[in-house]
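Appendix B: complex inputs.
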Amino acid sequence: MSLTNLIVILVQAGILVNMMLMAAAYMVLAERKIAAWIQNRVGPNRVGPWGLFQSFADVFKLYIKEDIVPAAADYKFHALAPVIAIGVAVTTYAIIPFSGPLIELDGVKYGLAMAPNMNIGILAVLAMTSVGVYGVALAGWSSNNKYSLMGGLRSAAQMISYELSMGLAIIGVVLIAGSLNLIDIIQAQTDGMWFIFLQPVGFILFLITALAETNRAPFDLPEAEPELVGGYHTEYSGMKFGLLYLAEYANILASSAIMATLFLGGWDIIPFLDDSTVLGLAPFSLPLVILGHMAFLGKAFALVFVFIWIRWSLPRFRYDQLMNLGWKVLLPISLVNIIVTGLVILFLQ
Amino acid sequence: MFTVFAIGAVASAVFTITRKNPVASAMSLVGHFFMLTGLYLTLQAQFVAAVQVLVYAGAIMVLVIFVIMLLNVGTEQQHPQSGGLRTTLGVMMAGLLAVLMGTAILARPTGRVDLPPESLTIGTTEAIGQSLFTTYLFPFEAVSLLLLAALIGSVILAKRHVQEG
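Resulting structure:
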């Protein structure tokens, strides 16, 4: 590994982590504002113009808050759980290709993506999301509180159940693109159609499972307030709570970015048409790549809006309904989706 | 890189069998799986590495943790040693293992061995898929039938339990 390579990786990591932190801060604010609008309220508007600095005030409050660990808690795992949660969430960002190649150093092209050309791309994303459950499960267990434990258990069961359908929903995309590599998947959509038009069922399945995997309403049973006080983070305070909360929002953005990559053409700007001819820019020229990066972020945040919108519009499922939906509805549909996709590809060849 | 992952793997494996708290033990095993993933990556076996995390760390160990939490297994008590027989057998087995490993290490050819260029691509998804659906098609299908049988069997067992209860 050359020095240039190392410096570029450090710069990329710095940009990505800061981007994630800023995005999470404004996603919390957006969540509260949109919730307020849906409920015909005003929402936070005291800190800064339109409440723009509300999240920073919240973080400052979390920093100066006393960190309380229950006497009966397993303090090592109590401290470890938020670290696992946020560590796994951040690692996913290394795999997502946020932009095409931006600069060229020593003959190697770099973009805002740390490991873009991985042979296993999407499998690595699935692997990281499947590990994310440890943060929540350990947080629930180590608190030594029955409500926290219930939250942790629910989360573990829910994530195992929905991960299957999530993995199977992706297979349709992989079959069409013929690769697990995220760059190849985006390229296949740039050359042809966005996969949301070819795999509408896969997109809906992925959206539902992503909601369940990120513990968002209507699948937010691990933190159902009326039943479980606060769920797995009941016994957390101060910045440890802040980290669990941050990991949740980081996961939402990561899921949205992955959906944008897999189904909405990644950094492809205009569906059905070739970007460079329509906009009159050379392929892979800097302005086009930057516009594409903007388009990618636009798509990702549009999906974040959908996440928030769904949360404040739909009521929470009951636990047996959640399991029935996962195993008896989503799993068969995703299997049929794979068979149909495979047959269509076979006949078109 | 190999040294870091190898030391990590051995250390986490030792932690797995020495921790008395079942959750700590299980989490050490998860750490061990991650170290193995690192070893696979140094060998350019990306697919195996991803599947290692996805299946072992992400699914099987989550179930193990789930069951530990559900049953609320307490910290294991120290069992009283049942005489010298157990210790003697243990030492004999360890000695045998040491001798076996020693002969294996001594019999290893020394010096650098140049690997064939195909070995770089052998761990990729394409290579594994190719060999799975051509060379090893029959074992692959046999294993999937076995898994299907196990799946149906577990569903039947669960159903019978519901009817009795």
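The mean pLDDT of chain A is 80.
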